[in-house]
Amino acid sequence: PFAVGVAGGQVAAAAGHPAVQASGGGSRVVAGGQYVTAPRAPSYPAHTAAVGGAIGSVVLGGMSLVGCLITNAALVTALLGLAMGVWGLYSTRRGLAVLGLLLCFLALSISSFNGAVDLYEYMNGRSPFAPAPLFEEDGEVLDEPF
């Protein structure tokens, strides 16, 4: 017994009727010919949780930027900050999300560079920025270039 009032006082009882679909549900006819409209579901603002992603991205980006100067483990927080920043782009605080993404990219690049330098030092036993050692013909390392 669901119906919707249509123009001219007629009642459409079919659930597939366009008036029923347009109203987002159906109204119920009660005694006396009055219509009672079914309550609609509450509408929430879209992407409200993504604001936390934008703020989290800035926080994690700042922590990563400071942490990349200390340890290479800042790669983990930078990657988490990147993910939260992408999520935060869907929020109303898009500017904060972009700032967080920039901080995370900067921390990620610095930390990756430091990691590559550490790997080079581990594999070759010397800094990549130190001058190359000088060798004589017999393979002995010279301390002085001349």
Describe this structure in words.
This protein is α+β, with helices and mostly antiparallel strands. It has 4 helices and 6 strands, in the order ββαββαααββ. Residues 1-24 have low confidence and may be disordered.
Shape summary = rod-shaped
Terminal residue distance = 104 Å
Q: How much beta, percentage-wise?
A: 5-15%
Strand order of the largest sheet: 2-1-3-4
User: What integer value in Å does the Rg equal?
Assistant: 33 Å
Question: What is the number of helical segments per DSSP (H or I, 4+ residues)?
Answer: 4
The assigned structural class equals alpha+beta
Number of strands: 6
Order of helices and strands: EEHEEHHHEE
| Share in helix | 40-55%
Mean pLDDT: 78
Low-confidence stretches: 1-24
